[in-house]
Amino acid sequence: MAGKQVVIIGAGISGLKTASELYKKGFDSCVVIEARDRVGGRLHTVPGYKNNKYDVGASWHHDTLVNGLFLEELSMPKEQRASFVFDDDALVVIDQEKGRIDQDPDMTLEVLMEELLKYNQLQYFEDLDVKDVNFFETIVKYLYERRDLLTDDQIRYIPQLARYMESWHGIDWKSLSSKCLEIAHQGRNAFVLNYDTIVERIASSFPKGWLKLGTEVISVNTEGKKVVVSTSSGEVYESDYVVITIPQSVLAHSLSPTPRKGRIEFTPPLASNIQDAFQRTHYGALGKVIFEFDKCCWSKDRSRAITMAKSNPEIARKVRDAQELNQLVEKLNSDTKYNFKNGESWDFPLFFVNLAKHTDNPSLILLMADPLTTYIESLPEKEKVYDFFKPVVKEVLKAFDCFEPVVTDFEDKLDETSEGPVLKNVLTTKWTQDPYALGAYSACSPGDDPMDLILALAGSETSKVRFAGEHTIMDGAGCVYGAWNSGVREASFIAEKMGKVRS
Ligand SMILES: Cc1cc2nc3c(=O)[nH]c(=O)nc-3n(C[C@H](O)[C@H](O)[C@H](O)COP(=O)(O)OP(=O)(O)OC[C@H]3O[C@@H](n4cnc5c(N)ncnc54)[C@H](O)[C@@H]3O)c2cc1C
After folding, report:
1. Could you tell me if 275 and 290 lie in one domain?
2. Would residue 60 count as lying in a domain?
3. Which stretches are transmembrane (predicted)?
């Protein structure tokens, strides 16, 4: 049995930061055990066509006024930090029939969107006991109550624009909590080029020998004075503290006895407040598809676009004729159902990043939410993925002033004379299929309270079993910098308890 001061489970950003801080504080005997054969976890930079680099996990530094990781990056010489660009310019909004409808002087959808978000927020500010409902229901309620103040077009298109929130939370409007909907942006968003620089920097700020890759932790036993951590390859570690940074989705499997990859057996079992809190939390699945072209034949004016799901031409009449809100919710709910068998890309809101605007890379990055993510990530071939998205990609290119048809050349056989865009490669994330991620990050459905799990996992003043990760913190919840903050928090806690004061 190897003796260590601290065992850290998981080498994502929270685990790496914990190790880095412990080393800074004078710890000299720790181990970071990681199931995958790489560090970074949900930060993962991969090569594509012509070795262009893409982040298939996180891409942005959010909340750059308060983001500690971003501020740490800024404090370093430029050549040592990851480049970034601010890409918050106005969103291009595309409808299947109408084409571009952003900044439309009659519909003023952007202004309405702000009003709708404020309407949602006010409901829960004014009365703490208001029942949490899904975002779809809140939108219908808004339309019903404000119908005399909205035009038919506004009633038709605002629900579809509002679905833009799905790409923040990674779940669809009918699963998304209205109470937890709001994203209070603390500063601009910076698109990182690329996160691998940051992961490598933090991973090399503590001894290499601490890292144990390709090793899955299978059990944590806290019955004795020390914590005993066992791995699937038979190693056993004994330590003063263990910091568990595995994703919420993987930790959830410790609640049931069924063996599976990533699952950790706890002896004694996880505390009852942790088990209870898991009943009031969910997990989203943001996914990405990257379309790599041979050259940029479209406009570089705008960074981002959203293609709205198709709207119902009958919706304004139905809203105006409605006698009762609940009936209207039911009616519109069945109007907006889809199934994947005959579903198509215009059933979903999709978010596009025009990478060519800020880099020399002629690629479009699409972001989607669950349940679409789970479906697309299960498709085995890039041809199938492209077939699904072809209609929207065509309209996005049109909205960016490219009217030539897309030619596909996945085998890279065409010469370079074609005038229009030649699609060379399609990359798709696989987070929902990855046993060490099982999706993207924590999310809230109606009735959830994310604070419960955070307090249950991170609130103990005495436990030797510590938790870190994006799901264990309020400041930066779900984000890279939240995970990073949680690593700082746990390292400080352990250092204080073990009498290490150096920082
Ligand atoms: C597609 C996508 C887009 C995103 N976009 C953004 C964004 O733009 N900005 C942003 O701020 N955030 C974004 N996020 C969220 C962000 O990536 C995460 O919040 C953050 O990286 C989580 O870090 P972590 O350390 O908490 O967890 P992880 O990175 O998941 O680290 C946990 C580690 O534990 C390991 N592990 C699991 N089980 C075991 C086991 N039994 N034994 C040993 N090791 C184990 C895993 O392999 C993993 O490496 C995105 C996430 C995804 C998936």
Report:
1. no
2. no
3. none
Domain count, the chain: 2
Section 38-57 average pLDDT = 97
Q: What is the CATH number of the domain that holds 156?
A: 3.90.660.10
When mean pLDDT is compared across 12-16, 122-126, 219-223, the lowest value belongs to 122-126
Same domain? 422 vs 447:
no
Give the whole-angstrom CA distance, residue 42 versus residue 55.
9
Query: Identity (one letter) of the amino acid at 111?
Result: V
Q: Residue 9: which domain range?
A: 2-41+195-282+442-497
Ligand 1, from 195, 370, 480, 489: best to mutate by most atoms within 8 Å of Cβ?
480
Q: How far is CA 426 from CA 80, 368, 392, 423, 485, in A?
A: 31, 15, 15, 8, 34
Residues 295, 412, single domain; the answer is: yes
Q: Is there a single domain that holds both residue 465 and residue 426? A: no
Instruction: Tell me: do 165 and 248 sit in the same domain.
Output: no
Residue 402 lies in a domain: yes
Residues with CB under 6 A from ligand 1: 9-15, 33-36, 41-43, 57-60, 62, 216-217, 245-247, 250, 262, 264, 286, 288, 429, 431, 436-437, 440-441, 469-470, 478-480, 483
Would you state the pLDDT for residue 492? 97
378 and 479 fall within a common domain: no
CB 386 within 8 A of CB 427: no
Tell me which residue has its CA closest to atom 53 in ligand 1: 440
Using one digit for the tens of pLDDT, what is the confidence trace for 153-194? 999 999 999 999 999 999 999 999 999 998 888 999 999 999
Q: State the closest ligand 1 atom to the C-alpha of 13, by its place in the atom list counted from 1.
A: 25
Pocket test of ligand 1: the residue of 246, 249, 442 to mutate, having most ligand atoms within 8 Å of its CB, is 246
Q: Report whether the peptide linkage leading into residue 354 is cis, meaning its omega lies within 30 degrees of zero.
A: no
Summarize pLDDT for 194-206 with one digit per residue, the tens: 999 999 999 999 9
The type of residue at 437 is A
Answer for the pair 170, 443: CB distance below 8 angstroms, yes or no: yes
